[in-house]
Amino acid sequence: MRLRVEFTTEPFDLDEAPAHAVAARQVVEAAELDGVDVGPFGNTAEGGAEAVLSAVDALLRKSLAAGATRISLQVNVIGEGEK
Hints:
Blueprint: E1 2-10, H1 19-30, E2 34-38, E3 43-48, H2 49-65, E4 70-78
């Protein structure tokens, strides 16, 4: 099964990336995911179910530890041909 995760961390800071946003980015970039797209207002990544779920666990733990006060995420099952 393939999954797509979309997430944001808060509070926002448009002047520089806060520590919690950097932590989240490091998690998804280091995970065995593909289709990673990191941006200032939202982030997405795709991969196998185990890889995505492991990354979500680490993302939540590390972002909260780095000062996130809110993390919004959505996980979708995607078809093999869907990008």
